[in-house]
Amino acid sequence: MSDIITVRDMCLWYGNHQALSNIHIQIPEKSITALIGPSGCGKSTFLKSLNRMNDLVPDVRITGDIRYKGIDILGASVDVNELRREIGMVFQKPNPFPMSIYDNVAYGPRTHGIRNRAKLDQIVEQSLRDAAIWDEVKDRLQKNALGLSGGQQQRLCIARALAVKPAVLLMDEPTSALDPIATSKIEDLCTQLKDTYTIVMVTHNMQQAVRISDWTAFFLLGELIECGDTETMFSTPKDQRTEDYITGRFG
Amino acid sequence: MRSRFDEQLALLNKEMILMGALCEEIITKVMKALTEEDTQLFGKIAELGVEIDQKERTIETMCLKLLLQQQPVAGDLRQISAALKMITDMERIGDQAEDIAEIIPFVEKRSARTDTLLREMADASIRMVTESVDAFVGQDVGQAGKVISDDDMVDGYFTQIKQALVQEIIENPGDGERSIDMLMIAKYFERIGDHAANIAEWVVFSVTGVHREGGIR
């Protein structure tokens, strides 16, 4: 398994405040990497750096090296739109656009110039199937997406992200706003998606990290404390701070 | 944080220590019944056997409750899963002590040689049980390692006793049944040693995350 993203010596500042220090990590492709740590530890900041979502934050400064498929994504010549097509994002709260289910999924491909109706139909169906929601919405594609349940909205958002054929999906606590059944559906979906996609997921739910991730990275106060295969991290972590956090002694 | 969980773990530890103490007590009593031919002890041994079984159920319930309520990870997960495995070995120790007690009334007129060897073997296996429980209490990998290596010594006693009994059968073929009963007692002590070594292996797992036989890292 090769690494699709490699991060070396990465630091990030918001103004004068250093939010991330000397992060070194490799993200293996076609696997799920969970980012865990207490609130404010920098894990979401790190996640957003992987497709330069932090560019939208004023006063942000990043040093070091973040490579996606060997290409330095911090470089000035990088087409950020193209990068975000390759590395998609799913947010904590489902955020469908206030338009039809179909148009939500077709939105990305249309922005990337696809106009052919048959082609769009095919992409919409495939994306909704891949996001395990096709059977629930196939008869109401023209209905407003806001009428879906929270769990369905989140899967729609995943379908929307998949529609532009990314290689990596970044997920920021994708199930924290969902009930256990909807959570379970998203978790099942993630384990299916990793055959095709690389998933990097921020989660506050330790059991979720244990259940679905292959790799786990523990962040604390802007540092990456420990990173390894999930089974080892949750059975015999090497660093006492990891042990203390995952066993609920702080955080 | 997690003060309730810590209290529950401390209680689990306490119950494990109590169960270990019951195991030590039952084999000490069995040895006493054997060497001093004290038949009064049989009732007490049976009571201890029942108590050990009850303790196993209590600890099992506690562990399952902790797994359900706390969804433990890392050191907590290892401690609870090790406890679940260890109580099976402790319960077997109790059973084997009872099995020995059942045979004792049938082994009169023993030879001094096998008696001495058996006493030494019993002492060694009781010590293994005591030390395996101590290793658990102190989470002491070094002491657990000693218990694991002491198992070879107990196995050695078994071989010696077996040879001595074969010799006795040759010399007094009429006492064959008694010799075989003695061999069974020795075998039960040998198994008690094995269970103590198993307990020690789970102590090592609980502390380091590595079990001799493989399993979860």
Q: Your description of this structure?
A:
The complex is a heterodimer of chains A (251) and B (217). With 251 residues, chain A is of the alpha/beta class. Helix content of chain A is 36%, strand content 27%. Chain A has helices spanning 43-49, 80-86, 101-111, 117-130, 134-137, 150-162, 180-193, 206-212, 230-235, 240-246, and strands spanning 3-14, 17-28, 32-36, 60-68, 71-72, 87-90, 168-172, 198-202, 215-220, 223-229. In chain A, strands 6-7-8-3-9-10 form a 6-stranded mixed β-sheet, sandwiched between helices. The longest helix of chain A is centred in the middle third of the chain and has 14 residues, at 117-130. By secondary structure, chain B is mostly helical. Chain B has a single domain (3-208), classed as Up-down Bundle (Methane Monooxygenase Hydroxylase, Chain G, domain 1), CATH 1.20.58. Chain B contains 6 helices and no strands. Helix content of chain B is 85%, strand content 0%. Chains A and B meet through helix 8, helix 9 and helix 10 of A and helix 3 of B.
Number of folding domains of chain B? Answer: 1
| Count of alpha/pi helices of chain B | 6
Helix proportion of chain A: 25-40%
Low-confidence stretches of chain B: none
Q: How many strands, which pairing sense, and closed or not: the largest β-sheet of chain B? A: none
CATH topology name of chain B: Methane Monooxygenase Hydroxylase, Chain G, domain 1
Q: What is the CATH domain class of chain B?
A: Mainly Alpha
The strand line-up of the biggest sheet of chain A is 6-7-8-3-9-10
- Looking at the overall shape, the CATH architecture of chain B is Up-down Bundle
Beta-strand residue fraction of chain A:
25-35%
CATH architecture of chain A: 3-Layer(aba) Sandwich
